[in-house]
Amino acid sequence: MNLPYILDDQGNPVLCLDRAKQRAWSESPASDQFRVGDEHIDGHWISTCLQPFDLEGEDGVESADPIVWETMVFGPGEGMDVVWQDRCGGNRTNAVAMHARAVTEIRRRIKQHDLLSEICAVCEHRLTSHT
Ligand SMILES: [Zn+2]
Hints:
Layout: E1 5-7, E2 13-15, H1 19-26, E3 35-41, E4 44-50, E5 69-74, E6 82-88, H2 92-111
Antiparallel strand pairs: 1-2, 3-4, 4-5, 5-6
The chain binds zinc ion.
Zinc ion binds next to loops.
């Protein structure tokens, strides 16, 4: 199993093998820092959060740079398909920067949509479906 992490007071991921401690942290006010960004742009939802496990770690092996932050961009509509994804390690500041890059990229792609067909360059849906 990939190893579980929580954040310290400085927003650095720290290994937490104690399941009760991890649960207590996730239910405490400190865990509010798990969410880095949550924005809606033209129907796309951009969400960046701490993940409870090293996303790219080897089974049971502690990584020097655990990948615990993930940005997901969901397309508009009921399906909410994942149309973009990024991951990083490091502290919360790294994750804030990753989220900002995703926001910039999604804005850029929406602007660069196919002008003739009005197809979104992010999700390939018609822009008219972006409500
Ligand atoms: Zn779109």
